[in-house]
Design goal:
heterodimer, A: 113 residues, mainly beta, five-stranded antiparallel sheet, 0% helix, globular, B: 113 residues, seven-stranded mixed sheet
Chain lengths: 113, 113
Amino acid sequence: GQQVMQIPQYQHVQEGEDFTTYCNSSTTLSNIQWYKQRPGGHPVFLIQLVKSGEVKKQKRLTFQFGEAKKNSSLHITATQTTDVGTYFCAGKAGGGGSYIPTFGRGTSLIVHP
Amino acid sequence: DSGVTQTPKHLITATGQRVTLRCSPRSGDLSVYWYQQSLDQGLQFLIQYYNGEERAKGNILERFSAQQFPDLHSELNLSSLELGDSALYFCASSDGTGVQPQHFGDGTRLSIL
């Protein structure tokens, strides 16, 4: 079945440093979604990418979707303590049926002040 | 606040017992999804309902069942509980079945003693 891998599993950074998490799929994806889950919280939708090579920005966050639509990345510039949490990518291979994305295991970001 | 309501927030019970988790989707959303989140398995999709009908099934055990009622709220029934069922159970909703963001509730933390 479809697999979505995320690396790294954990990332410790000093406040102000940059952070990147990578998402790789075993199959071509129709789209990719990114979610953030704060400690003790629930996943919150951040963004969705659909087009090959697409890049989207949200303030200090930059999201990319690979040209082959099999990988994606989330880059945070100058991390802040409010960025702490686990970042999940979720995607589904193309085809019909309900949109049920496969979630990656997530990357937990720990920001040290 | 995602608009998705889950009850109860915490549930402690014993092996062999049966519990019911409840979810009210965001106003206007017709799709409800159930997920299980555990430390070693990440976010696992269980089942999806759309407007009262089952639309997709994931890694849901036969001991588990769900339904969506005419008022669109959903219940997840877990029976013959085992220690390994201890996890965080999330409900999410979206307004359709296509490629859309999912809005997650706060989850129900189930602890089996």
